[in-house]
Amino acid sequence: MKQRGFTIIEMMIVVVIALIAIMMVVNVSNGARAGNSISYGYNGLTESRCIGGYKFIVGQDGGARQIMDELGKGVKCQ
After folding, report:
1. b/e map of 32-53 (b: 16 or more CB within 10 Å)?
2. Contact between 74 and 68 (Cβ < 8 Å)
C-alpha cells in the first residue's frame, strides 16, 4: 500500500526548520533595530554594537574595539 501525505516525523522536521528560519530573521531584525549591524568583509564577519551609548566593532574572535571619530573621541550611538 502506498503512503499518502507526510508522516509525523517529516512534519516535525519541516516545522523545526521553519521555526529556525523565523528565529534567524527575528534576531537579525532586532539587531538592526537596536543599532547593531553585521557585515561580511575581507577580515570575515564583524558586528557593530552599541555598548554604553558608544559604538563598538566586535570581530569574529569576540573582541570589542571602540569606533573613534576624527578627533579621537568615541562615536555615540544614535
Report:
1. eeeebeeeeeeeeeeebbeeee
2. yes
Domain coordinates in residue numbering, the chain: 8-66
Tens-of-pLDDT digits for all 78 residues of the chain?
567 777 889 999 999 999 999 988 877 666 555 566 676 667 677 788 888 889 998 887 788 889 899 999 999 987
Q: Does the pTM exceed 0.70?
A: no
Sheet of 44-51: strand order equals 37-41, 44-51, 54-58, 64-66
Q: Which three cell numbers mark 29?
A: 531584525
